[in-house]
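Q&A log
Question type: sequence-to-structure
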Amino acid sequence: MGFDATLRAIEHVEGWLTDAQALRLWSSAHRLTPPARIVEIGSFQGRSTIVLATAAPDGVEIVAIDPHAGNDRGPQEISGFEAQAATDNERFEQNLVDAGVRDRVRHVRAFSDRAHREVADPIDLLYIDGAHRYAPALEDIRRWGGRVRDGGTMLIHDSFSSIGVTGAIARELLLSKRFTYVGRSGSMTEYRRASPASVGGNVAKQAAQLPWFAKNVVLKGLIASKVLKRDWPY
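Response status: OK
Response body:
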């Protein structure tokens, strides 16, 4: 399926993935050569999952990890949605069926830190859009990122947007000798596993994103205080 068809397939699927981010995700999956493995951490109602499944060539395994527990709904990490957990899972399943990709995706309904035994090594493409708090974001980047093969790709959503995710990136990737910063589409960053990575280049390229991060922090403060409506793109 081409990218334009993919956009039509996710048009009515709820989520926070922009078209530009969908293109980066689609392109990363599309260039894989079977056999290969894609792991997605955080699927919500399947918007990004459908992008991965429509882009990946036949013979690529796609594993979607999401507990559908009703929390961590979006960049603001709103809690108190436990009653919606079952609905999120039902919509995830139905959205994949409607897009014609349900048979391409293996769903692991568990928190990411409990799902490692469900996935074999190596990972060719890792997409992280799980919990946005610092500790679990760091855990995902460190442990799941450590399973990405040399030359593989790691994409992280809400980078330089969420304070917790950005802090985890600063801790684990700013001075990384394993991952090279490639670029970003909005708040989605792309890293390539390469040993040894250029530490100096990583610092300079990621530090250049800090003004954009500062702007996002201010905007989120205005949203939290209800000065702005929550409709700006991530």
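Response note: Confidence is low (pLDDT under 50) at residues 73-78.
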